[in-house]
Amino acid sequence: MLTLFHHPLYASCRFVRIALGEYGEEVSLIEERPWTRRKEFLALNPAGNIPVLLAEGDHPLVGASTIAEYLDETRGVFQRERRLMAEDPFARAEIRRLMDWYLVKTEAEVTKHLVHERALKPLMGGEGAPDSGAIRAARANVRQHLKYTNWLAATRDWLAGPKLSYADVAAAATFSILDYMGEIDWREFEAARDWYSRMKSRPSFRPLLAERVRGLAPASHYADIDF
């Protein structure tokens, strides 16, 4: 069985979990707090970042993009219509662009700050009170990312094109954390809300909807597929 070192409030980790679920792969989860610099974990990944997937033969694969490429090469090519990466090179480029948008850009401008200030600081100790300025800036940026997602969802069947892809998985992983924290008002973004509802209804998403983060209760609508 595959083993994933993850944290439930890291979008990159949720991305890998959803992707594994889409491919019907069972995975053993080990929750990792990367800020503790645990010696045993650093032996697997000296960089200390997550996610890390222990693949066949216990080979450590580090980072969401690396893991996604590995899964495509070892699982996706056999999945036909369920493959999360396209065959056409331009379609592949668009999927990768949107993966980067959500797992890097949205993470840097929104998710990282809200998660750090609202959820992780109390766990880390010695970090002080939440930075209200960082929270305000991140909340302002949420709207721009939702507007863009709303446009994508309104003009395409799925975010990157006609089929479900890694782009949808990346966006859903990111927004699921913000939705858990009650940071999204979906009423203003109907197309994005309908797309996210489709993602929430997929079997690969069920473990995330059932999961609860210690010390942080989810928004009341979080597990409701129909909001």
Automatic annotation (TrEMBL):
A molecular-function term among this protein's GO annotations: glutathione transferase activity
Record's signal peptide: none
GO biological process: glutathione metabolic process
Residues annotated as domain GST C-terminal: 88-219
InterPro entries per the UniProt record, alphabetical: Glutathione-S-Trfase_C-like (IPR010987), Glutathione-S-Trfase_C_sf (IPR036282), Glutathione_S-Trfase (IPR040079), Glutathione_S-Trfase_N (IPR004045), GST_C (IPR004046), Thioredoxin-like_sf (IPR036249)
Positions of the GST N-terminal domain: 1-79
Assembly mode: Homodimer.
Protein name: Glutathione S-transferase
Source organism of the structure: Nitratireductor aestuarii
